[in-house]
Amino acid sequence: MNEAVGLIEVFGCVAAFVAVDAACKAGNVRIEALDKNKPANADSLPVPLVMCVKMRGSISDVRAAMDAAEEAANSVTGVVSKHMIAAPDQNTEKMLNISAL
């Protein structure tokens, strides 16, 4: 059985590290990657960089970690979006291995 995956996009590198710290403390998760993206509308954003944190673990651990990460990131600059995939398909697994860093 595949591990669940959690994806949370936040504004800025500092918020990403704060989110990672909170996630790891809240659930038994493994951080797979931190990806960066500078959107076309970067100048209109609170921080001109969007970071995506990818984490893996059991469904319950990822859910707890995602909630903690969201709360922590919102205390810094904010969350763009978040999503959890309970059992990624093998084709999705291939895409999850792509990293922008």
Report on the architecture of this protein.
This protein has 101 residues and is α+β, with helices and mostly antiparallel strands. It has a single domain (4-86), classed as Alpha-Beta Plaits (2-Layer Sandwich), CATH 3.30.70.1710. 37% of the residues lie in helices and 31% in strands. The chain contains 3 helices and 4 strands. The protein has a 4-stranded antiparallel beta sheet, with helices on one face. Helix 1 (13-26) packs antiparallel against helix 2 (59-74). The chain starts with a strand and ends in a 5-residue tail after the last helix. The relative contact order is 0.31. The model has no long low-confidence stretch (mean pLDDT 90).
Q: What top-tier CATH class fits best?
A: Alpha Beta
- Tell me the number of structural domains: 1
- Can you give the mean pLDDT? 90
Instruction: Report the CATH architecture.
Output: 2-Layer Sandwich
Give the strand line-up of the largest sheet: 2-3-1-4
Strand-pairing-aware structural class: alpha+beta
Helix content class: 25-40%
